[in-house]
Predict the structure.
Amino acid sequence: MSTGPTRKRTVAGRRVAGSSRSVQQRRTGLSRPDQDAVVDDATAPAADDADTADDLDTADREGTDDHAVDDSDPIDDGAEAEDSAEADDEPKPARLGGKALWLPVAGIVLAVVVAVAGTVMFLRAQDIRAAAGSNDAVIETGPTVEVTTAVREGLERIFSFKHDNVALTEAAAKEILVGDAAGDYEVLFQSVRDLAPTQQLTLKAAVRVAGVSELEGDKATLLVYMDQTATRAAGGESTSSGSQLTVEAVKQDGTWRLSGIQPI
Amino acid sequence: MSDNAEGSTPGPRRAGRALRATAAALLAAAVAFAAFSGFWLASADSGRAQAATARDEAQRAADAAVVSLQSLDYRDVEAIYDKWLTHATGLLREELETNREATIKSLQQGGTTTQASVADSAVVDLDTARGAATVIVSVIVEVTNSDGSQNDKRIRYRADMSRTDQGWLVAGLGQVAIEPVA
């Protein structure tokens, strides 16, 4: 903020400039008596220029102080220039249309310009953010690889099976599956478990391709192409089958677990 | 003093003050908003936005292309073949153009109608700089044979997508075959 003296000078300068204009307006028939004093000091600077008015101001103000009683008032309470300029000359209605208006009007115009610029930037930012979205799949390589690897390994463990080591697969299922996936897995694996002892089945699973379609924080959805080869100990004949699975994964305590397995 | 002044000329002066206060408040609010917008824009990740857009477009294009390429009506093969071509680029397009007559003829004689739908799909690889993506598309194809019998086929497709002036197009389409697990 400006210092006291500077402020005063500015105030006076504005007042002078303003007065000269308001004179004409006042002539149209507003309060006369008090006007004389103002007109006196205002006559000299028809120039609007505050700089040129500076010198005059000082003298002007001193002079004015004698005449106009309420002159000091605007300077005192005039935190802003127009205020004092306005207060200085009593007939306000005339003043409102005068030069004193330019600062607030300029301020509002500037505010509008700045607001428009702000709006443009804001909308652009919103566009970019909307396009960027919250889905990290593929575009955030680290987390994408992490969840893909975890899902691949998890599926291969729970869909691989040795008739003579059922416990291994069951332990893996217990570790990897949470929520609905446990039920999904039971449905998918029940027939294998039933056949296993009699046929001495061995199952091997391999994920061929896995793609992450959704990845948001600690939740992910993947599409997985998986192959399975079943081998019967008796006879050694094997059959292979392929599947397509929509897999839901959740990260719990830093580890990705499978929360849903839906065959297509 | 100010009481005195206000007392003598309350209305206009108050109005002037209110106008200035309003202007100052508006300006302050505008500057604050613009500053926030600037920060919001500067911190928006346009690289990520481009990558995300490319990923989603490639996936959508792959879905649409596979549905188109797996949907067929033997009574309208010519038109359908032309539609297939609009999804294809590179090697796939060359292949389709080269085999046009023979393929159309055999499809017309086959008497088969198919309707494909995408069950699920996901982008496996994305190279935004090169404009290339690999998308896997799990498709269910309802087949109506010439004898009227129907059956569903579930097919594991892998589509190699290429970004062109016409958007993302299929440069290669193949099934991920079932192989014995060693």
Summary: The first helix of chain A runs from residue 4 to 27. Chain A touches chain B through 67 residues (CB under 8 Å).
